[in-house]
Fold:
Amino acid sequence: MICMKNKDFALTTLVENFQALYSLSVHTFGIIFFYQLFGNNAFLAFLPIILRYFFLAVLIPYSSWIAGKIGTSKSLLLAVFLYIFSSLPLLLFQYVPNNFLVLSWLLLFILGDLFYNPARIYLYGQNSTHNNRGTTFAFKHITLTITKILTPLVSGYIIETFGFSRMIVLSALVASLSIVPIMMLHNLKFNVMLQNHSWFTNPSVKKLTLVNSIGRFGDHAGQTIWVLYLYFLFGQSTSNVGTLFTFTTAISIAFLYVFGLFLNKHNRIKSFKGTSLLYALTNILRALPISPIILDTCNKVVNQFRGEVAEVINYDFMNDNVKNKDKDEMMVIREIGLNLNIVISYLVGGLLLYFLDFQLTFISLGVIMAALSLLVKD
Structure:
């Protein structure tokens, strides 16, 4: 059983690395594409991202039910094919610029996420335990960070040379390599019912909601606004933005395994709360005339630890002291809370950027993040 768990955890991590080549390219540079598409309007550029996470929050119970019925590996396989097909409308967009093609890409991308996320989360939960979760997830984060080192540099250069659409097509083709490890995974089935009305009074659900819906407020929006800010700071050069992210991510990787060992022995909620306050501070510091290299390095080092803590806490709450029949529902509740949090933070971030400048937006988001992180209880 241990060997099977280790094997399936490693295979799931490999699948996530291949998929990250596609999703990270979208998450990093998608805001620049949307900003140009909507006539340099920052708030409108946020709308496709807001719609994506809104639909993920609303539809995840239904896609999780389907994923549970067909099994994890089949669900991942379906997701990969949806990601591949999602790149085709953007390929056509190069020759026939049409907003309908962009909408088609976005819808297929959302559908891919809807089948990818439940299967991935379920596999990680089934193939890790409370005692080894700190170090096993540190391993996962190290491999993902290596992918994060390469992706911005390569994607930024491709966008600058060939355009955003061609970068998406190439990323999707590389992501299709995940089919190989998917075929080696066990096809685990699960059952999502969401008929337990005691969820709203369950302490684990309350803590899970606090961590994802309050403690992680502003994560995505803050980083997206930072990408847009750097894009203008570097003379609208995506390759320069990608080079910076590659350099700073490479520095942060050195701390990951140490973080994992620390998590195995220390209170995870306190660690999350402390790193959340530090993360809020790094967002406020973005408003100051400090080197982008220093700012991004500090932000990434703190967020690597914070992200690892948050993920380990999530899997603790979804799997420890939870009946097997309830684990699937915990997964869905986690995804709903996390995606709704992202929707709200993008709405707030977009409105702040629309009415304020970049510096005041960074300060405002940082203050909000710091205040909300204090609400997370031990």
